[in-house]
Specification:
The chain is mainly α. It contains 23 helices and 7 strands. The strands form 2 sheets. It has a 5-stranded parallel sheet with strand order 3-2-1-4-5, sandwiched between helices. A hairpin with a 2-residue loop joins strand 6 (166-168) and strand 7. The radius of gyration is 24 Å and the shape is globular.
């Protein structure tokens, strides 16, 4: 009796449910590098290298525990290059009598898993992924028949359930649940954030990087700056470095942007969390210990915990609650193709140039760059949600559909019609000017809304509000911009809308 136990590329976790009860003498663990997973979207080269390196290191870790591992390398001639094909091939070769796996992160992989029994003739057990802090059944129960699924209320329930940052069962640390109002400062002049810990590629990673450079040369992004953690030990070191050196400044400046400072005070642990080499509860507990020891202020720690315990768990719940139909929604009827500069970074808009340029180099941009620069532009310009979602899934090392889709589709694009956000996260150039220094060196004037050097974000913002005025009239949170628009000189509104139309008509569309 041999059980074939499947470990996916984003499941490199010691406590994975698929490994529970494993018999080292009989059972076989399958890990498979397959081309179909590297190319269903054209992932950033660093994303592919990260996942494959983490897989190879984790396979060695399992073997060191005395487990038998069948590892399918991408360049093995026998590799079928599909997950289902490798499960069927290895199951037959091993004489497996059943298959055990852990619930995947993405809908398309679950659909594939549900076909494994037919492909192999074996029973398939799909176990819950208990690495998350909120089980999917629990999220569905919380959602119930609520009319509004607001993250803040879910987050409070998770704080109570886990005891994280709680002084009593219903008393949040410091007496309030959310310190976001204290976390909206631009980077103070002269502030130099400590550089994050980077991990020079070891022999395994170098071998993977050579494979990626050879097999996926035409994919987006650069490989040279690869420095991601690829083992649990690396990920723990990255977490400890963040807590020691950047967590104290994280809160104040978590929404800031600055030229030449791609990482600021951010943790850069999302990729490690999402590939499975770092535990989310442990990350939250490390931050809480820093606050209780007096090393980091509460607003910084609460903001960090909210990112993981609140947003990360919440978007996963939304994804599995609403898929597969969620991805097809397009509430604002946005149809415009993705501009070429999203791939090239070649634009005179300094904020977009910075965000896309560092994304190409590092496979990373922080949440405000994603939401209020690349996402805000996509929203205002009416870019096709499917194209924008694919771009976000391609370009970031931490991007998996369960976390990328709700954040992009719901938060950035408002394409879900308000499932996640009570109003569109739309902003003019004034927001970017307030939270960054990008506008100082930009070819456009952030103070102007018309004319040849006017900031495109300004006239695109008012064109967006005017374009959707009838729709937004039903939204009380859009009352202020609509009133402002109504008071504007009609000639100015017409001029701005003309500028917007001309600008959008001049965008060059293109694919990676």
């Amino acid at each position: 009796m041999t059980t074939l136990r499947i470990v996916l590329g984003d499941q490199c976790s010691d406590g994975l449910s698929a490994l529970d009860g494993i018999d080292p003498t009989r059972d076989l663990v399958l890990m498979a590098e397959v081309r179909s997973e590297c190319t269903y979207v054209r992932h950033h080269k660093q994303k592919i290298a990260l996942v494959l390196s983490a897989m190879r290191h984790f396979a060695a870790r399992l073997e060191a525990r005395g487990l038998r591992v069948a590892y399918s390398r991408l360049d093995d001639p026998a590799n079928t290059q599909s997950l289902r094909g490798e499960v069927a091939r290895i199951a037959a070769a091993a004489g497996a009598t059943r298959i055990v796996c852990t619930h995947p992160g993405e809908w398309r992989v679950l659909a594939d898993m549900q076909g494994w029994a037919g492909a192999t003739g074996l029973p398939v057990e799909i176990r819950d992924d208990d690495r998350f802090l909120c089980a999917l059944d629990r999220f569905r129960a919380w959602a119930g028949d609520r009319k509004q699924l607001r993250m803040e209320y879910f987050y409070r329930e998770m704080r109570r359930a886990t005891g994280l940052l709680m002084d009593a069962p219903d008393l949040p640390a410091g007496g309030q649940w959310n310190y976001d109002q204290e976390n909206r400062e631009p980077l103070a002049p002269g502030t130099r954030p400590p550089a994050p810990l980077r991990f020079p590629p070891d022999a395994v990673t170098r071998e993977v990087m050579a494979l990626v450079a050879r097999e996926f040369a035409d994919h987006f992004g650069d490989l040279d700056a690869f420095g991601w953690p690829v083992t649990a030990e690396d990920a723990q070191a990255a977490l400890e470095d963040f807590v020691a050196n950047r967590l104290p400044g994280f809160g104040r400046f978590q929404d800031a942007m600055a030229e030449g400072e791609p990482t600021l005070f951010h943790a850069l642990i999302g990729a490690a969390l999402n590939v499975g080499i770092l535990d989310p509860r442990a990350a939250c507990q490390a931050a809480e210990r820093a606050w209780r020891a007096g090393h980091a202020p509460l607003n910084a720690v609460e903001g960090f915990v909210r990112q993981i315990l609140g947003w990360r768990e919440y978007v996963r719940g939304i994804y599995w609650l609403r898929m597969p139909g969620y991805a097809a929604t397009n509430a604002l009827e946005a149809r415009r193709p993705l501009p070429w500069f999203y791939w090239s970074g070649e634009t005179e808009m300094a904020c977009l140039r910075a965000a896309i340029g560092q994304t190409k180099k590092l496979a990373y941009a922080h949440h405000i760059q994603r939401l209020m620069v690349t996402g805000n532009f996509a929203l205002l310009a009416g870019l096709d949600p499917a194209a924008v979602n694919e771009w976000y899934l391609v370009v970031y090392a931490d991007a998996y559909e369960w976390v990328e889709l709700p954040n992009t589709h719901g938060m950035a694009l408002h394409a879900d019609g308000g499932v996640m956000a009570s109003k569109p996260y739309a902003a003019s150039g004034a927001y970017i000017n307030r939270m960054s220094d990008h506008c100082r060196g930009c070819a456009f004037d952030v103070k102007r809304s018309t004319g040849p050097r006017a900031c495109p974000f300004n006239y695109l913002y008012w064109d967006f509000v005017a374009r959707h005025a009838a729709r937004f009239a039903r939204n009380p949170r859009m009352a202020m911009p609509l009133k402002t628009l109504a008071r504007m000189d009609p000639a100015k509104v017409q001029a701005m809308r003309g500028e917007a139309a001309a600008f959008l008509a001049g965008l060059k569309a293109g694919a990676a």
